[in-house]
UniProtKB/TrEMBL annotation, chain A:
Claim: Nucleotide-binding is one of the keywords in the record: no
Lineage, uppermost ranks: Bacteria, Pseudomonadati, Pseudomonadota, Betaproteobacteria, Neisseriales
Residue ranges of every copy of the Gcp-like domain listed in the record: 24-312
Protein location: Cytoplasm
The organism of origin for this protein: Craterilacuibacter sinensis
Name recorded for this polypeptide: tRNA N6-adenosine threonylcarbamoyltransferase
From TrEMBL, chain B:
Gene this protein is translated from: tsaB
Protein source organism: Craterilacuibacter sinensis
Keyword Transferase among record annotations: yes
NCBIfam families xrefs: T6A_YeaZ
GO MF: transferase activity
Name the UniProt record assigns to this protein: tRNA (Adenosine(37)-N6)-threonylcarbamoyltransferase complex dimerization subunit type 1 TsaB
Keyword Protein biosynthesis in record: no
Start and end residues of each Gcp-like domain: 30-132
Amino acid sequence: MLVLGIESSCDETGVALYDLEAGLIAQQLHTQMAMHAEYGGVVPELASRDHIRRVVPLTEACLKEAGKTLADIDAVAYTQGPGLGGALLVGASFANALAYSLKKPVIEVHHLEGHLLSPLLAESRPEFPFLALLVSGGHTQIMAVRGIGDYEILGETLDDAAGEAFDKTAKLLGLDYPGGPRLSQLAESGDPDRFTLPRPMLHSDNLDMSFSGLKTAVLTLTRQVEASEGEIGEQARMDICRAFQDAIVDVLVHKCLKAMKKAGMKRIVVAGGVGANKQLRAGLNAAAAKYRFAVFYPPMALCTDNGAMIAFAGAMRLKFAHGAGGFSVKPRWDLATLPKA
Amino acid sequence: MNLLSIDTTTDYLSLAIRHNGKHVLFHQQVGQKHAELLLPTLDALLAELGIALSQLDAIAFSQGPGSFTGIRIGCAIAQGLAFANALPMMAIPTLDTIAIQASGAPALVCMDARMGQVYCAKYDAQAQRIDAIRVCDPQDVMLEDGHWNAQGDGFSHYADALLPRLAARINSVDATLRPHANALITLADSGRYPLQPAQQSEILYVRNKIALTSAEQKARRS
């Protein structure tokens, strides 16, 4: 069974082919990051305009990469949500028209399920059940995953997603969009002992998190440094980045440990763009060694949005495949409402 | 040429198929239900003719201007159909489809562009466009001396800003003309538009300034 996966929910157009026996056999990705950088953030209309320019060439390139033709495709999976409505519609329109023409079924995929299952595409793959930390620019959730579609949200951010906090704080520190990765890079050279920022909700008795207050804390800190030193020097900025990253990582690791205990899990899976963060990985790896549990990450290339995770999630949901035709997208869509596969 | 034509640029869904002299049409107001209705409607039209898409020679579509989302649904579906069936596509500007429906005299076509603006272009008596399609405020629509037909819903949405000012040069007004799949087929026959592979068929948004860059935002604040 060969599944074509199409992702177009935000600022990445991804197309991939996943075969139930051979695994992931081709994937193509176009990121719009440079285009949106000029605007200081993702402009939804421009994102949609770019998706429609990319989706056919990427599909063609993907088939070529795999040495397959359209006739080899058994089903077409596409991201139905959540995400930007106009952007989702491009992938959904193309996917349905393609599947309709090929007389093959379509499978609607939840973008976050794609992320959640992407560690299963790595060489060392986790068994069910596992705890999942889904952490990206749009989401920060801790879930108990007992099977495909069996997801229980144990805790989540009450305001900003962790990746969003990174980007907003980076902007505040004058870093160019997308500032999150740049902030992390600077943090590597920062002094961990110079500043300490608060750890919001660290000791709350639930698994929820809150990151929006950290921006204000960073702003206050920069003003203090400016007042005492006259300006934010290069080293001071790195030290602030370090303090910020330490705070976020500390909260995430702490909440994950708490959730592991509560849900009685022995494995944790990390997915989403922030899952590529080196310090977060180091923090979780250290905790895993100390408390004897296993950590799984998606392959580095699959941390950002991509078509591979959509093709894979589609392949795991073949029993929900149905004829192509009229369709809709779901810009907002609760992961916990997915049926079990 | 055996053709499928698709227009999704307004709140209508307009689809037509012409195959070996037979012709079927769906042309209805659907609001924002293009995604929901396009493929099932196409399926019904194909069934009515008893043919498969692969028996056609090309897919013509309204490339815009019009509803951004609507155009993209039409274009992405047309691309999926064309790519899968190895059919070429023909991209036709929306305003051209309005002009062709009442040729015979020079025409000024104005289509509602929302945000208080119109998309407009001028045409000769053969419905050949004689200037570039642009988006502007209705009071900035200019017209040379002559006897022009005024066409398109811009003349009902912005009647006050357009008609009194241009009245001396306008012969007749038809604000009811709207994009139509049959007009796409007529235009496809004209030979004015090239056949292209799916990946090269472009959307014509006309309204291209969508957001301010960081530099522009900064300049505006200072």
